[in-house]
Structure formats: C-alpha cells, structure tokens
Amino acid sequence: MGKDGVSWQFNVDGESRGITIPSAESISYTPQDIANVDLLNKTLFDFFELRLPDEISPDVPDPASPEDSAVARTKRIFDRFGDVARQLDERQRDRQPLLMHDEYDVQYLLHGQLKIYFDDVRAETSTERHSSVSPRIDFLLEQHSIGIEVKRASDSMTPKRIRSELAEDKEQYRKDSNIETLLCLIYDPSHEIRNSVEFEADLADSPSNLTTLVTVTH
C-alpha cells in the first residue's frame, strides 16, 4: 500500500500474480466517477473469476452496475431535462407550446419525469419533522434518502442568488436524517451561468452527512 496505489499479490500454481489500483487525489460523485467505479468493479470481478475461479462462491451474483442506482437515474433525468423542455417548446399543428417560464414550471415537468423511475415522489415535503420551523424541499425520494432542489436561472434568479440559496438549503437539509444525498437541478436556458462546470464543482461537496451534487442544464 503506497501513495501510488494499492496492490494485491498472490500465488497461482507457483506463479506470482497481482493487480494494482492507482490512487486518486480526491473522490467526487460525477457521471465519470460512476463510470470509473463501474469499470473497476467489473474488471476486478472478471480478473478474479478468471484467475481464481475455485475461490468464488457460485452464490455471488454478477456485480450490479451503479448506473441503476437512484442517484444515477435522477442525474440522467437532470442531464436530459433541457432536451425535453426544448421538445415541448416545438409543438406542431398550431398548438400552444409548453414553456418553462419559472421555477414552478420546471418543478411540474420534473415531477412527471421522476415518476418514470420512482413510485413515491413527495413534492413540497417538510424536512425537519420534529422542528417548529419546517423547511420544505421541492422533492423527496424518501426510500432512497434523496432530496431534490430545483432552481431556474433568470435575470432575477442570478448565479449569485442561486449560490446563496443553495448554501442555505444545504445547511437546513444537513440536519435532516431523511436526506443523505441532495441533488440540485438548475435549469438555465438563457445561459446566465457562464461556466456551468465550475459552478457545479463549486457547489458540490461530500461531507459525511450530506452529499451534494449539482447539475446545470440548458
């Protein structure tokens, strides 16, 4: 075990075998990280199944893909939200388009999309249930301990204001034992946020009691 990674060494039929996992300076739960973990999981499983087949119990299932997790599914919805909103804006036969004028419109469309994957989607749910002041979160996937906050960037909902409100939200939800992961969707069709990658990274963090992931979509 060292700064460059972690290695496993073992003998197979008198031959020395091994595998090394390189170290990482930090861990954050982005789609690329999920893909990397998925690849590592499957690579290790395949490696040991090939090298040490007699040591693997037949009762062990194939490794499950992180892409099927509740967080991954919600992130998939977030990533495609802008595409769906644009499709609704392009109606034919002189029908009125469905436009995302404000945050409530965004919540309305997102609620329908979440129902694709989740049966129990609780909207405008109070969080601190035993407190005299009960902050409300936009959506709660209680079975998965996921809270969802929605923002729509605009002239009045500036990047600075979004930063401030999400910082306050995180402090409130950090106290709620029902929420382990806070997922934030920021719909920004007019590109108020100039560097969305930097913005997402600045607002995301992974403390022990509340992982926060932010997605800016256009």
Radius of gyration: 22 Å
**Strand order, sheet with most strands:** 3-4-5-6-7
Q: Cα distance, first to last residue?
A: 44 Å
Note the total helix count: 5
Instruction: Please tally the β strands and state the result.
Output: 7
Q: Percent range for helical residues?
A: 25-40%
Shape: elongated
In round numbers, the mean pLDDT is 81
Spans of at least 5 consecutive residues whose pLDDT stays below 50 are 129-133
* Number of separate domains: 2
User: What kind of sheet is the major sheet?
Assistant: 5 strands, mixed
Could you state the order of secondary-structure elements as H and E?
EEHHHEEEHEHE
Structural class: alpha/beta
Provide the β-strand percentage band: 15-25%
Q: Would you write up a description of this structure?
A:
This protein is of the alpha/beta class and 218 residues long. The protein has 2 domains: 5-65, no CATH class; 69-217, no CATH class. It has helices spanning 31-51, 70-88, 103-114, 159-173, 196-203, and strands spanning 5-12, 15-22, 122-126, 136-141, 146-152, 181-187, 211-217. The strands form 2 sheets. The protein has a 5-stranded mixed sheet with strand order 3-4-5-6-7, with helices on both faces. A two-stranded antiparallel sheet has the order 1-2. A hairpin with a 4-residue loop joins strand 4 (136-141) and strand 5 (146-152). Helix 2 crosses helix 3 (103-114).
